[in-house]
Design the sequence.
């Protein structure tokens, strides 16, 4: 848990603040972020990755690829701002929060096309690999045995 000052843990406050708000399927917490990161975190962040928090770890969620999604711009989760309460300054240009708000829907989020295009590309590469493997296998089986 992230501490601001010396006595206010941030994650319970955000849980309480969101207790009566609409819960969207792709909602991400803003408090207690960047606690655990992997060695590629900085490189992925520079490439436009939007991270998701899972069990304290920051993991890649999706990459901004289109206009209006902040294509290729870095958007890390900033320290918790308490939504402007407790004398804290509210973040003015919070790109991460803006990208999260694109997910606030009960349908498919806007970045769903990015994810589906990556999955289709991977499936195409897998299909090509299988075709190459099968052609080599057929060629090997058709050789005469000595």
Sequence:
């Amino acid at each position: 848990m992230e501490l601001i000052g010396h006595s206010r843990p941030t994650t319970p406050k955000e849980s309480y603040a969101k207790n009566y708000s609409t819960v969207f399927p792709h909602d991400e917490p803003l408090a207690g972020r960047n606690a655990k990161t992997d060695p590629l975190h900085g490189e992925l962040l520079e490439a436009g990755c939007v991270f998701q928090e899972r069990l304290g770890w920051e993991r890649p969620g999706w990459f901004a690829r289109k206009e209006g999604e902040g294509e290729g711009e870095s958007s890390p989760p900033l320290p918790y701002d308490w939504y402007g309460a407790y004398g804290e300054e509210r973040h003015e240009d919070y790109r991460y929060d803006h990208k999260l708000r694109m997910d606030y829907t009960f349908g498919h989020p806007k970045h769903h096309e990015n994810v589906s295009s990556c999955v289709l590309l991977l499936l195409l590469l897998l299909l090509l690999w299988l075709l190459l493997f099968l052609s080599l296998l057929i060629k090997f089986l058709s050789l005469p045995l000595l």
